[in-house]
Amino acid sequence: MTPLVHSFDAPPSEPLDTLRARIGGKALGLVEMTRLGLPVPAGFALTVDAGRALRDPEAPFPEALRDAVREGLRGIEAKTGLTFADPQAPLLVSVRSGAAASMPGMLDTVLNVGLDRSTLDGLAQRGGRRFALDAYRRLLQMFGDVVLGVPREFFEQQLSLAKARLGKPAMTDAELDEEALDALARAFEAELTKQRPDAFPTPLHAQLELAIAAVYRSWDNTRAQRYRASQDISDDLGTACVIQAMVFGNRGPGSGAGVLFTRNPSTGERMLYGEYLENAQGEDVVSGVRTPSSLTAASAVPGREAGSLERKDPEAFAAVQRLAEQLETHFRDVQDIEFTVEEGRVYLLQTRSAKRTPEASVRIAVAMAEEGRVTRDEALLMVDANSVETLLRTRLPTPDELLAQGVKPVAIGLGASPGVAVGRIVFDPDSAERMAAEGQDVLLVRRDTTAEDIVAMKGARGILTAAGGLTSHAAVLSRALGKCCVAGASTLQVDYAAGTLTARPRRGSDDPPRVFQVGDTLTVDGSTGRVYEGALDVVAATAIPELTTLLGWADERRTLGVRANADTPRDARTAKAFGAEGIGLCRTEHMFFADERLAALRCVVLATDERERERWVGRIEAMQRGDFEEIFHAMAGHPVTIRLLDWPLHEFMPRDDASLAAVASGLSVPLREARRRAGSRAEVNPMIGHRGVRVGLTIPAIYRAQIRAVLTAAVAVSRAGKGVAPELLIPLTAVGEEVRRVAEAVRAIADEVFEEQQLSVAFKVGTMIELPRACLVAGEMARHVQFFSFGTNDLTQTAFGISRDDSTHFIPAYVDELGVLPQNPFRTLDMVGVGELIRLAIERGRAQNPNLELGVCGAQGGDARSIHFFVEQGVDYVSCTQSRLVVARLGAAQAALRLAAVAT
Question: Where in the chain is the domain with CATH 3.30.470.20?
Fold first, then answer.
């Protein structure tokens, strides 16, 4: 075959990663399943490069691609005995997208291509006229929507009218009779011809080409672009196009379509998890328009076990079960499988690594390692490190506990994605998106979701749907986004026009219906599928033993130290419990928030008489000494990095009369004088004003008190028989002379304290590297200190010239809408710019001081992608918030494993 086409039965002649980039993940899975001899309908893939020209809506269909499609069709025809566009034995094909990165539901599909009035009778000979009309109705619906842009609402309205005419508005599509389907097809034909007389009707080969072009162009649709932005997928990847012989799940009661996961993607439990729709095609299952039956009897809604595939067609179920086990064993990961049953025979249409919740991801990784299916190192790489923080979040009490409190659910659906969401009801996705951007807690409530709802879902606290199942768009996307979701709450009636949500009583209940309005608050539990009125209180998260196991394996593999940012003894104890190996940032300014302490600091700053200042400095030293002793005790010999006062003096100044009066009293000056002195400290831009080391050099009494407090506390703890490892950190340095002066002061004060106490302890002095100039003169600074701590928050602010606090006004647009930045640089390190500054500082610092220790204490220290960069640069440790410690431990192990693999 030509380079533009890759047949499913063509043996790979290149590395699998290269082939994936060329033909996409969907086609690669089909190629591998075909190689294994599994029941895969014949087909071929058109490469990513083949369709790049078609992404231009005005571009003609390339002649070389036309020839490649004809060549691929001849291969399918030879295998099936059918011929495309043949009135007697027509070959129908599906046209589906397939990018290298999984994007569930974001790109387009057209089924039953090759069908029109000329081939309708030929198809009817194979399965009956009702089946043929149903297939044709589906083609018109999908072709009209995807290719011609006919509003989806038109087709839904026509379907509703057809059912109403039959007197059964609640009937399913599968119950429509031949006459109704024929009438629907004619109505659809008329609308398509009216909308685009140039494109419909059209010769069948042209129909196929239009479908192929539309699938390629779907790469650039809005929902796909937004999804890629949310998942950090490059826009440059592009999609391939998969052409495959149709198999029909809509051929009657012995046929159907299903989606399954080889393990539960919500909990990680080892069980077949999925759904099946009888007499349906695959899009019916994933769209959420119909609520399917369970695959297994055990997971079916009580009383509906007979509707499961396991009970309805035990032979087909056994075949599905056998194939699922074979695929998971072969691919060594949990699989998300689409299948069709045509008159009892099972066909596989897709397999891919399953999207899963963080909880499931951890449990699956550990289980598969313990089962011997993967190694421990492979298990570590199976989990998204950034996602494990969510496992520490809160949950609702159990349903029984709530019931005992008199709290009953207003509806019960399917727990499609775990977690708890409390929010105000919003029906309209645009309104949900806007309100979420304003910081409101939104619960997106829909009859069913579509892929277009991606941005609203991302901003919402949770998602609730009245229809759909565990494999619907709502469920799959919620799990991918880490959002709580309850799907298929069938007792809920959503009225978009009236703006109401009616909770009808469940069968056997004598509760009255409940009506909720837009803006009312609900609580949804994505683990149990329950929906509650109002905002319920949550309880602490329960520990997951598998996470402890996984982190233990991670600690064995990582080379990077992991410390915590902690400002109080309680923070220190919590950090140690989460596996911190020390404190990488203790912010001393946070210790001044109590009224008494704040007043003392203000008096030190505003005093003009040195004797008066020394009196207040003594109080600060005594206060902080007690704080540091408690923290040293809590960390029991682990390093504790204490940053000297960093905040702008402007932030500490009194503003109200009561605070000014306290200062006036403390300094024995009139109120107006206290107000004048405080006003003299006002700054226009305090972020880069009188703060950090500048305070330490201009009002040295403050740093002197803090240094004495740290070292005196360290001596006291050491004298009590406990290990102690204090590290003093100089903030916001930009000049080598700043570092030299403060470092020398620290050592002089240490000699003084140790002489007084007749006991000494080892300590370190370091400087923050958080200004671009500091990176440039890092060599000069390194001569005076033992360690650098990269303050990536301020380094990012000053490198970009962006205030972190104000960045929320435009950074989301820069990342998600405009594509100016690939990610938020205050979450994931900007490796091109800020990263280059860090590389430069490390190179120059270690050139002057080969033993220089390197740490990171900004928010990026708890981000897995940033951690990979830090490990690569030879950083010794990162420090992050307590909740991100689990991320850092796992991310550090993954970085070590990946870098080791590259090295070999």
Answer: 256-356
What is the pLDDT at residue 223?
85
Per DSSP, the residues of 400-427 read HHHHHTT---SEE-EEEE-SEEEEEEE-
- CATH number at 558-903: 3.20.20.60
**Which residue has better confidence, 106 or 113?**
113
Q: Of the residues 6, 473, 638, 868, which is catalytic?
A: 473
Render 656-711 in DSSP notation, one character per residue: SHHHHHHHHHHHT--HHHHHHHHHHT--SSGGGSS-THHHHHHSHHHHHHHHHHHH
Q: What are the residues facing 98 on neighbouring strands?
A: 240
pLDDT of residue 593: 66
Q: In which residue ranges of the chain is CATH 3.50.30.10 found?
A: 394-533
> Of the candidates 107, 195, 189, which has an alpha carbon nearest to the alpha carbon of residue 151?
195
Six token digits for residue 365 = 């990784």
* CATH class in words for 394-533: alpha beta
The second-level CATH assignment, the architecture, of 256-356 is: 2-Layer Sandwich (3.30)
Nearest to 94 by CA among 257, 262, 226, 278: 257
Q: Which among 528, 48, 7 has a CA at the least distance from the CA of 240?
A: 48
What pLDDT, on a 0 to 100 scale, did the predictor assign at position 582? 97
Whether 230 shows a pLDDT value over 80: the answer reads no
CATH architecture of 5-245: 2-Layer Sandwich (3.30)
What mean pLDDT do residues 594-605 have?
A: 75
- Let me know if 809 is a catalytic residue: no
- Residues 744-774 as b or e (16 or more Cβ within 10 Å = b): ebbeebbeebbeebeeebebbbbbbbbbbeb
The pLDDT tens digits for 643-677 are: 999 977 767 777 777 778 887 777 778 888 778 88
Are 259 and 275 spatial neighbours (Cβ–Cβ below 8 Å)? yes
Where b means 16+ CB within 10 Å and e means fewer, 246-255 reads bbbbbbbebb
Q: Which of 794, 778, 851, 867 is nearest to 587 (CA)?
A: 794
Is residue 644 within 8 Å of 588, Cβ to Cβ? Answer: yes
Helix (H) or strand (E) holding 99: strand 93-99
Catalytic residue among 484, 586, 603, 857: 857
Rounded-to-integer distance, Cα 163 and Cα 470, Å: 26
Mean pLDDT of the chain: 90
Which of 638, 680, 677 is closest to 877 using CA atoms? 638
Does residue 1 have a pLDDT over 70? no
Reported confidence tier of residue 26, pLDDT bands at 50, 70, 90 = very high
Q: In Å, what is the CA distance from 153 to each residue of 145, 427, 649?
A: 10, 16, 60
> What would the pLDDT profile of 692-704 be if each residue is shown by its tens digit?
999 899 989 989 9
Q: Which residues of the chain form CATH 3.30.1490.20?
A: 5-245
Q: Who's near 15: CB < 8 A, 6+ residues apart?
A: none
Task: Check if 857 is active-site.
Answer: yes
